[in-house]
């Protein structure tokens, strides 16, 4: 195999597929990047068994300046190879392969590294019983960014490490929960004629990597199979396994009424919680306290070792019964960042029941964050 290519275009492709590569894997060859060259294009693949990313550089891509001299393939150590390419001196490079040894030449530099036979690299997942739809990349980014914060990072309950997507016609409902908080986003897909019924759980880690690839994209073609999802971004295909099992019924966790409601600028509450958490983070339980008394909103953070901070907040409105509630400030800060630049309604039912944060005036729960308070007595 032999080809030459613009180095920056090659680095971008390497960066994209490297998102799927982990140094911690039970399959040693998956620490490598698969490089395959045919008569028309260069194909790079990275995988960690959970996600696989394949990106293609076409010979007709003038920016890539791909010149194909001899077809073939090899797999090369991902981190080592990428670092070599990023540090080469010239604007282009030539990669030549003989057997399982690769020579990388750029300017006056010439590296030779050992790889492995491309035939030993696992094949991309097969897609059976596929349902297909096309979605706006912006809407998909919106769904991911507003829900991934509440996905669990604990492998003891694998099902909760995913984002649950329920598709009904052109409506998508995305939910995550780690048992302490819950995020929900409901959108109606635009620019698509597909009306599909599907219920899938995609690992939040997969979506996190996909989100980075979506930037600058217009639309994404999605294929859903029995145990795999594939996202087609034009020259890049992103595969993710689906989590098996039934996601918990979350609708029953969302309160249908409230006894106290606070309407406030998200940035105002976010700033105050950030200051209060300076103290709470020095405490063993990391809790801040919100008090609503006769229309006055007060936030307090305490650390027995360091001291305390108390701040009175300027709210747009406070309605309902007086309340004193404690919560993990990090959970609420994550939720409020989603509503940056907006006013929010914070609705409470009691000091021991979960409370919700939604855009001010909205009652349809299409953008909802739910937080479980902390018992302090």
UniProtKB/TrEMBL annotation:
It comes from Leuconostoc carnosum (strain JB16). Keywords: Cytoplasm, DNA replication, DNA-binding, DNA-directed DNA polymerase, Nucleotidyltransferase, Transferase. GO terms for molecular function: 3'-5' exonuclease activity; DNA binding; DNA-directed DNA polymerase activity. Residues 135-249 form the DNA polymerase III beta sliding clamp central domain. It is found in: Cytoplasm. The keyword Oxidoreductase does not apply. Belongs to the beta sliding clamp family. Confers DNA tethering and processivity to DNA polymerases and other proteins. Acts as a clamp, forming a ring around DNA (a reaction catalyzed by the clamp-loading complex) which diffuses in an ATP-independent manner freely and bidirectionally along dsDNA. Initially characterized for its ability to contact the catalytic subunit of DNA polymerase III (Pol III), a complex, multichain enzyme responsible for most of the replicative synthesis in bacteria; Pol III exhibits 3'-5' exonuclease proofreading activity. Forms a ring-shaped head-to-tail homodimer around DNA. This is Beta sliding clamp. GO terms for cellular component: cytoplasm; DNA polymerase III complex. InterPro entries: DNA_clamp_sf, DNA_polIII_beta, DNA_polIII_beta_C, DNA_polIII_beta_cen, DNA_polIII_beta_N. One of its GO terms (biological process) is DNA strand elongation involved in DNA replication.
């Amino acid at each position: 195999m032999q080809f030459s290519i613009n180095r920056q275009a090659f680095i971008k492709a390497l960066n994209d597929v490297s998102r799927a590569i982990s140094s911690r894997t039970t399959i040693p060859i998956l620490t490598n990047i698969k490089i395959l060259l045919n008569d028309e294009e260069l194909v790079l693949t990275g995988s960690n068994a959970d996600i696989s990313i394949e990106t293609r550089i076409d010979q007709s891509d003038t920016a890539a300046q791909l010149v194909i001299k001899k077809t073939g393939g090899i797999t090369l150590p991902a981190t080592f190879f990428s670092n070599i390419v990023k540090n080469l001196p010239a604007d282009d490079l030539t990669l030549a392969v003989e057997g399982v040894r690769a020579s990388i030449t750029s300017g006056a530099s010439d590296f030779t590294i050992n790889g492995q036979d491309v035939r030993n690299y696992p094949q991309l997942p097969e897609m059976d019983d596929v349902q297909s739809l096309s979605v706006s990349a912006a809407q998909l980014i919106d769904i991911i960014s507003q829900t991934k914060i509440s996905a669990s990072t604990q492998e003891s309950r694998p099902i909760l490490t995913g984002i649950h997507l329920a598709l009904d016609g052109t409506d998508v409902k995305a939910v995550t929960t780690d048992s302490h908080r819950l995020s929900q986003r409901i959108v109606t897909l635009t620019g698509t004629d597909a009306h599909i019924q599907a219920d899938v759980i995609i690992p939040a880690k997969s979506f996190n990597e996909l989100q980075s690839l979506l930037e600058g994209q217009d639309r994404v073609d999605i294929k859903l199979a029995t145990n795999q999802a594939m996202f087609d971004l034009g020259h890049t295909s992103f595969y993710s396994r689906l989590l098996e099992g039934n996601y918990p019924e979350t609708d029953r966790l969302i309160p249908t009424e409230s006894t106290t409601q606070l309407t406030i600028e998200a940035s105002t509450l976010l700033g105050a919680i950030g200051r209060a958490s300076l103290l709470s983070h020095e405490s063993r339980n990391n809790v801040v306290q919100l008090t609503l008394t006769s229309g006055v909103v007060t936030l307090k953070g305490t650390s027995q070792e360091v001291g305390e901070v108390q701040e009175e907040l300027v709210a747009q409105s406070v309605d309902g019964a007086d309340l004193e509630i404690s919560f993990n400030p990090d959970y609420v800060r994550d939720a409020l960042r989603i509503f940056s630049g907006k006013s929010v309604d914070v609705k409470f039912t009691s000091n021991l029941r979960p409370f919700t944060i939604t855009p001010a005036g909205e009652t349809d729960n299409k953008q909802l964050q739910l937080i479980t308070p902390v018992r302090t007595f």
